[in-house]
Amino acid sequence: MSKKRYDNMYAVLKKNIKICGLVLLLCLILVIGCAVGPNFKPIEATLPSTWAGPAPKSDTGTEKEIAGWWAAFNDPILVSLVKRATDSNLDVKQAEARIRQARAARGVSISGFGPVINAVSSYRRSHSPQSTAGSDGITSNQYQAGFDAAWELDIFGGVRRSVEAADADLQAAVEGRRDVLVTLAAEVAVNYIDLRAYQQRLIIARNNLAAQNHTAELTHKRVSAGFASSLDAANADAQAATTAAQIPLLEASTEQAIYSLSLLIGREPAALLTELRDLSEIPAASPSVPVGVPSDLLRRRPDIRRAEAQIHAATARIGVATADLFPKFSISGSVGFQNDEFNSWMDRVNRFWSFGPSVSWQIFNTGKTISNIELQKALQEQSAITYKQTILTALQEVDNSLIASAKEEERKKAFSDAVTANKKAVDLAKQLYIHGQTDFLNVLLAQRSFYASEDALAQSTRTVSTNLVALYKALGGGWETTIVE
User: Fold this and answer.
1) Is 119 a domain residue?
2) What's the angle, vertex CA 482, arms to CA 398 and CA 294, rounded to 5?
3) Could you tell me the pTM of the whole model?
4) Burial level of 365, CB count in 10 A (0-12/13-18/19+)?
5) Which CATH number does the domain housing residue 300 bear?
6) How far is CA 54 from CA 62, 109, 445, 475, in A?
């Protein structure tokens, strides 16, 4: 190729590139100001100004107290278990994987802004017949290598809406992990409180069994001395045996609670047996909780924020579907070398190139695009309903926890008074029985009532603590102390 011809070809190419550059600039200006579909607007939630449940004793406090609420129980083992669960729980690991999935999906959506460039290389050997009689035809080779590129311009904002939806999906995944952390901290605390409650009930059962065995021995001695009947001895033995029958159930429940805690920290069932077998008190915390006002739930509870992000994603996908109603503008081009001789394949004279815009418009597809838009609108409506339902559920959970906490405190006080009275009744019944001033049935009834009230007090103490955990969970506490990687 002569230098003059080459310069002319270069000038034409340069001119086409400038023209296409102007077209690109114009398209980019259009892209900045145009995106079809509705814009997301947060739903205005109507919330009550106060809680329906009884107000707590004190609503003073800080967000930090709710964020790390388990520290209020003053139990180092509980704090350690929550930390280990946060680091190792498998549900948390799954939630973190979903965040990485959403982040990767966002990267896929963003890639729609850029061009697609392909490297192409091929070799073809072909044979064609000749029209001249007696000829065997022509066999030829063709070598080709080069690049082709295509860039679809986001004129109507379909890609931008897709990225917007991906951003909202990512936020929903982040809030999903936070919601897992809220639930996880509450589950660890409840299982730990259950464990300590079973251990306390076990102590009560063993102490009562020892007292009842002592009473049975005393009764047998009185029977031998002729001061009591064999019926009294049989009743005493029966009561001791009934109490003894409760102990294996409590021991099994204790072991199972430890197994549950091991699972929550991502370990095998027996991993915590040595650490948690030692008996300990039921952890308790002050009932004073900084509950704030109902509107605080909108920014504190991850499940509400996740539901809002899902509305955002669904709204953006209406725009993605709407963009299919409009034409697609693209710029494509290719450059490379092509020849039938391998030795001269890469010579300048064998170069080829092409460059130019194109437009495609799907005019008829049997209503598929319109139906898809309606589908996305219906999904967005469902997300909005779910958001409202999530808020109502959150309000109910807080109010339920407030009323349950208040009433259980009253119930615990009554059981405490019952334990005091029954203990006095047992001592009096024994003294009267020994001096022959009452029958043995009163002793049995007093002992039975004392054991029942002690066990009920332990269970009520457990319920007070678990109700407090439920309140902290309902308020959305427990996720702020960790950072998403």
Assistant:
1) no
2) 20
3) 0.84
4) exposed
5) 1.20.1600.10
6) 20, 49, 38, 15
Q: How many structural domains compose the chain?
A: 1
Domain contains 148: no
Q: Are 428 and 443 in contact (CB under 8 A)?
A: no
What is the distance between the terminal CA atoms of the chain, rounded to a whole angstrom?
59
Residue 378 domain-assigned (yes or no): no
Q: What's the Cα-to-Cα distance from 125 to each of 120, 137, 141, 142, 346, rounded to whole Å? A: 17, 13, 4, 6, 18
Rounded Cα distance between 8 and 108, Å, is 41
Rounded CA-CA distance 416/96 in Å is: 46
Tens-digit pLDDT string for the chain (485 aa):
445 544 544 454 455 555 555 555 555 545 455 688 899 998 888 888 888 878 665 545 556 778 889 999 999 999 999 999 999 999 999 999 999 999 999 999 998 888 888 888 887 877 777 655 556 667 777 878 888 888 888 888 899 999 999 999 999 999 999 999 999 999 999 999 999 999 999 999 999 999 889 888 888 888 888 877 888 888 889 989 999 999 999 999 999 999 999 999 999 999 999 999 888 899 988 888 888 888 888 888 999 999 999 999 999 999 999 999 999 888 888 888 887 777 776 777 778 888 888 888 888 888 899 999 999 999 999 999 999 999 999 999 999 999 999 899 999 999 999 999 999 998 998 888 888 788 888 888 888 899 999 999 999 999 999 999 999 999 998 887 654 43
Please report whether residue 413 resides in a domain.
yes
Which residue carries 């009323």 as its tokens? 403
Q: Could you tell me if 73 and 190 are in contact, meaning their C-beta atoms sit under 8 angstroms apart? A: no
Which range of residues forms the domain containing residue 213? 47-110+157-325+383-474
Residues ≥6 apart with Cβ < 8 Å to 166:
102, 105, 106, 108, 109, 110, 313
Angle between helices 158-224 and 230-264 (to 10 degrees): 160
